[in-house]
Amino acid sequence: MELHIEDLSTGYGEKAISQHLTFPIPSGQITALIGANGCGKSTLLKTICRIIPPLGGTVTLDGKSLWDYDSRVLARKVGILPQNPSAPGELSVRELVMYGRAPYHGPFFSRGSQEDRDIVQWALEETDMMEFADRNVMALSGGQRQRAWIAMAIAQTTDILFLDEPTSFLDVAHQMEVLELVRHLNEAYGKTIIMVIHELNEAARFAHHLIAMKQGKILYQGSPEEVFHQQMLRDIFGIDAELIQDPRTGRPLCIPYSRYRKR
Fold first, then answer.
1. DSSP conformation letters of 15-70
2. Is 133 helix (H, G, I), strand (E, B) or coil?
3. Who's near 236: CB < 8 A, 6+ residues apart?
4. Reduced to 3 states, what is the DSSP secondary structure of residue 243?
5. Burial 156-193 (b: 16+ CB within 10 A, else e)
6. What is the structure's pLDDT at 40?
7. Distance in angstroms (rounded) separating the CA atoms of residues 234 and 225
8. Model confidence at 52, in pLDDT bands (50, 70, 90)?
C-alpha cells in the first residue's frame, strides 16, 4: 500500500502547526518522526491517520484520499495506537485484542467468528501476551499494557500501523521490548510502520527512514546514516554531540554533550 502526503497543512481550528508538507512514506519500512517537544510530530501523525482533519492538502492511500474512505474500510487498512490509550477497567487482554476485529463486523459485534478468535490468538502469541490473555488490562505493567494494545492493533490485520510515542513512560527494558516487537512486525509481515519517538538512538537503531521536524517544518529526511549528523542535531535539538558507529548494528549512535550555543 502506498501512502503519500501532498501539500499538507496541520493544526487545530484556525491555528496552523505545519504548512505545505509534501513527502512519501516508504512502503514496508519503519519511519520515525523525530524532533523536540512541540515541533508538530504528533499533530502530523494524527492528521496522516485521520484522527484530526487537515487544514489543507491531501493524504492519499493507494491514490485515494484518506477522507474518501469509509471508516470501517479504512480500519481494515490502517491500524492506530494513540498516546496513552485507555480501556474499561474490567476488560481482559483477550477481550481488548478482540476489539481489533470490530472493523470486519457490524455494530453489534460481540464474540466474533472462529477466524476472529484464531487471529486474536495469533496476535497474543506474536506480542508474547498469551500468559496474560485472561488478566485485567489495568493489572498489567506499563510494558505489558503497551504490548496488549499493539496486539489489538495488529489483530486488525492492516498493512499500515501508526504508533504515537509507543515507548513513552516506559523504562529502558520495556522500551526495548516494545521496539523489538515493532521491528519483528515489520520484518516478519512487511508492515509499514510510522511512529513518533523521542529517543534519538532508538530512532536510529530501529527505523529505516527518519523525518526530522522543527517548528512544524521538515528539515531533514532519509535513512539514519543520511540524517544523523552534527548539523542536524544542532538544528533540530539544539545540542552539541558526538556521533559514532554502533559496534553491534553499524547504525549511528549519538552521544550528547551540551546545548549548542552559536558563537
1. EEEEEEEEEEE-TTSEEEEEESTTSSHHHHHHHHTTSS--SEEEEEETTEEGGGS-
2. coil
3. 34, 35, 36, 39, 212, 213, 214, 219, 220
4. strand
5. bbbbbbbbbbbbeebeeebbbbbbebbbebbeeeebbb
6. 94
7. 16
8. very high
Domain range annotation of the chain: 3-77+159-259, 90-157
Asked if pLDDT for residue 49 goes beyond 70, the answer is: yes
In whole angstroms, what separates CA 226 from the centre of its chain? 21
User: For residue 110, what pLDDT is reported?
Assistant: 63
> What cell was used for 200?
534519538
pLDDT digits (tens, 9 = 90+) for 209-247: 999 999 999 999 999 999 999 999 999 999 999 999 999
Average pLDDT over residues 20-39: 95
Residue 259, pLDDT score: 86
Do the Cβ atoms of 191 and 160 come closer than 8 Å?
yes
Q: May I ask the CATH architecture of the domain 3-77+159-259?
A: 3-Layer(aba) Sandwich (3.40)
Grid cell in block for residue 256: 550528547
What are the grid coordinates assigned to 249, written together?
A: 548494528
Lookup: cell for 86: 485507555
Continuous segment of H or E residues that includes residue 118: helix 114-126
Three-class secondary structure of residue 89 per DSSP: coil
The torsion angles phi and psi of 220, rounded to 5 degrees, stand at -145, 145
In this structure, what C-alpha cell is assigned to residue 192?
Answer: 509499514
